[in-house]
Amino acid sequence: MIRSVVQGCGAYLPDRVVTNEELAKKVDTSDEWIRQRTGIRQRYIAAEGEFTSHLAIKASERALEHAGLKAADVDLIVLATATPDETFPATATRVQASLGMTRGAAFDVQAVCAGFVYGVSVADSMLRTGLASTALVIGAETFSRILDWNDRGTCVLFGDGAGAIVLRAEEGKGTAEDRGILGNALHSDGRQHDILYVDGGPSSTRTTGFLRMEGKEVFKHAVVNMAAVVGEVLEKVGLTPADIDWLVPHQANKRIIDGTGRKLGLPPERVVVTVDQHANTSAASIPLALDTAVKDGRISRGDLLLLEGIGGGLAWGASLVRW
Ligand code: COA
């Protein structure tokens, strides 16, 4: 049985840190309000001329180095982003060229904050069906470019960054103890479009637009849908919440993360939280959190990880990974 096994991970954040205090000088908000409602203390913002592809390339180089592989070994790039460099071509092809890859396929996946889980699921399916053998799955975003900096209800919540993992198809017995992606579950509900979207696009307004959100509504859906999809993916592979070593959730809001952890009965020290440092980096948030906990030694080989995320669409999903 073929399974997609994680070979390594990497991440990259822009140099510039913007604290809540700094933001409060430009926007009518306060460090206290932001921290209490979201857990966010700071975010990283890409420099002028620093694009999503630049962040993605750096994260990918680090992931390849961690995996002990070269770009020439890779034959698939799946880049999850809602903030591509250009309307087309896929930002993934820029990453492909920059890494020096001359074969295989590279494309973008657009599922906003659920993008990384969607990307993992797509790459996993392609590896298991033999369409590719070694994949880079990247989440990279420059959300600072689509924020309305006059809307205090949204601009304080997001940041820029990138993270990546390398997956390789390996033959194995296929038990829950074997390493690799054990299962995925994906969902979307287009009826919820209006609670989280960008009011622009090439086909509609011919502008890039800005992020619009009804925060309270998104919050309600997040809590309910996360609990359901986590239960679904666990049931698929015949495991229970007690088997999970690490919850690595999308980092939108500390209160949503805490709620999911509580529902699973996981103690807080088994939940990876980086929203305080990175804010919500959309598709980049899960691989950024993953990289943090792998590199600081919390996550080790053989651990069972639950990745989950929800975002605009609404789109949501979860993946179970034996690290
Ligand atoms: N600073 C200070 N006050 C702010 C503010 C800010 N940055 N943003 C909003 N407010 C004010 C509002 O104007 C409102 O004031 P009013 O009562 O005088 O009208 C008050 O705070 C409450 O606003 P509300 O939007 O009801 O707050 P909330 O408790 O729902 O918290 C969120 C707002 C966005 C933090 C919360 O709804 C949330 O986290 N939602 C989920 C969003 C999310 O995770 N999205 C991404 C999913 S991928």
Give the key terms.
26% strand; Peroxisomal Thiolase, Chain A, domain 1; 33% helix; globular; 323 residues; binds coenzyme A; four-stranded mixed sheet; 2 domains; alpha/beta; 10 helices; five-stranded mixed sheet
Outline of this structure?
The protein is an alpha/beta fold. It has helices spanning 20-24, 31-38, 52-67, 91-99, 115-128, 152-155, 215-237, 254-264, 275-278, 285-295; strands at 2-12, 16-19, 42-45, 76-80, 105-109, 134-142, 160-171, 180-188, 196-198, 211-213, 246-249, 304-311, 315-322.
Give a list of the ligands.
coenzyme A
Counted beta strands: 13
Please give the domain count.
Answer: 2
Q: End-to-end span in angstroms?
A: 18 Å
Anisotropy-based shape:
globular
Tell me the name of the CATH class of the largest domain: Alpha Beta
The helix/strand order is EEHHEHEHEHEHEEEEHEHHHEE
Low-confidence runs: none
Proportion of residues in extended strands? 25-35%
**Rg computed from alpha carbons, rounded to a whole number of angstroms:** 18 Å
CATH homolog superfamily of the largest domain: Thiolase/Chalcone synthase
Output the number of helix runs. Answer: 10
Main β-sheet, in a few words? Answer: 5 strands, mixed
